[in-house]
Amino acid sequence: MSVDAATVTKVAHLARIAVTQEEANRLTGELNAILGFVEELSAIDVEGVEPMTSVVAMQLRLRPDVVTDGENAKAVLANAPASEDGYFLVPKVVE
Amino acid sequence: MTELTDLSIADAHAGLLRREFTARELAEAYLSEMEAARGLNAYVLETPEHARAQAAEADVRLSRGEAGPLEGIPIGVKDLFCTDGVRTTACSRILGSFVPPYESTVTANLWRAGAVLLGKLNCDEFAMGSSNETSAFGPVINPWRRADDETPLVPGGSSGGSAAAVAAGLCAAATATDTGGSIRQPAALTGTVGIKPTYGRCSRWGIVAFASSLDQAGPIARDVRDAAVMLGTMAGFDPKDSTCVDAPVPDYAAAVGASVRGLRIGIPREYRVEGMPAEVEALWERGKAWLVDAGCELVDISLPHTRTALPAYYIVAPAEASSNLARYDGVRYGLRVGADDIVGLYEKTRAAGFGAEVRRRILIGTYVLSAGYYDAYYSRAQKVRTLIKRDFEQVFDGVVDAVLTPTTPSPAFPVGSKANASPVEMYLQDVFTVTVNMAGLPGISVPAGLSGDGLPLGLQLIGRPFDETTLFSLAGAVEKAAGRFTPKAWWR
Q1: Of the candidates B215, B292, B270, which has an alpha carbon nearest to the alpha carbon of residue B406?
Q2: Cβ contacts (< 8 Å) between A44 and chain B: which residues?
Q3: How far is B431 from chain A (nearest CA, A)?
Q4: Fewest CB atoms within 10 A around its CB: which of A21, A48, B165, B467?
Q5: Which domains does chain B have, with CATH numbers?
Q6: What pLDDT score was predicted for residue B2?
Q7: What is the pLDDT of residue A61?
Q8: Is residue A32 part of a domain?
């Protein structure tokens, strides 16, 4: 399988990364080189093989459903590029 | 007396306990080495004030007889580990001047044992690379050069800063992480020891995530014993990482120097790849002979799905990365590029903040997870991963106790030499290491000799899950036979 520039542009939008037409053209070649490399896997017989979900046999631990953290608004916002009154600031999303 | 910065962790610890020098003096010695070696670009942030304060506290504990196992030992930390109040960037523009308000579990374990932070070490951006050339802070220069040749070489990656700093004596040891070979490959290329423990041995909490089912922390150190002491401190249960295993940490250092007589060592035929230089082949032969001399038995084995590990990795790792890196959105931390609407803000911020290799991997990951392609790529790759793991399970079930391979297909290469090549050419650096991550096993790289050009080469030992102890014993045997390798200090 391979991708064209239109697919690259679509995928880049899904990944929320802006790409120019020129970048999309260059990325098409790069991504196709990688997709060509992984193509080898289509020849492997995986009939009846379970997909791996965990490399180490373990059961995910459960913990009591209680509050263990909080009241850290200042620390949470300390690295925000823009914040005000205890909130993150973003461009207007609702008209 | 030898230079303080030449001492191994064991010797420095003994000297501190005997009060031959203070932790403060040891830290100062390293700080001045770091200053003289800035041309290597190993550190992206030096923290001298932090180091002096921690060293002073260590001296107090030493004087009270309350020394921890790493009391006063100065270490470097890969800039992928969050350090409370100390800038952490993953060597990406998108994290900008992020200052974590918390400490990673692994580094917290080290500070509790008395270690001293010298600074944050360079690495490939988000640990994606095998040469340390994708770092937003620029490449790290390998302290090793070819004989009679000043061409700057890469230290490998992604933990290139960690490996270079340890090789050049700019820290006693360093933390590192390994997703596809990022501890073992740079260790091999710099003549240092690096171990990636079993998945789940170290907590991943507070380490910037790349591919969560593959990422593990481990140390890079000057010798096997130092690596054992470091891992013994870094490892351990942490309820904050649900994949971290609740099992006691053995005394790894005690395993170094233990007899390896009677151990069966697998030699997998699939690791003899086309185009492998004769000197790598010869190194492997020497490694086998050393282990036979030490009383091991060699067993020819087959790991038939070896070839599929790298292609499967380049589906699984980018897929997980595309998900993990979705958090960098220009809203909560790091870089922000303004736009009129929220989607524009995301797209512009991520375009400006991520470097070329990271963008490439996010796009591949997004593509293989997108509707209609999931089964053909991601699901198939995870099935192949089951087969890779099964290969190892079959040989570890009564056939062999460990597996011996070269760590890398070649020694260090010049900075910039792969700039115009296909991305796949760089990926091939990890052809011998990536299988271990895919199967979640422990793997150690130990320096074993020099190439014809005078560059270090490493051998890799792969063990059963949670059997790091055997790896430390075997690596100790290789080290004893091969000796240690130190570069000439041309950078001073």
Answers
A1: B270
A2: 305, 308, 380, 384, 387
A3: 13
A4: A48
A5: 8-262 (3.90.1300.10)
A6: 61
A7: 85
A8: yes
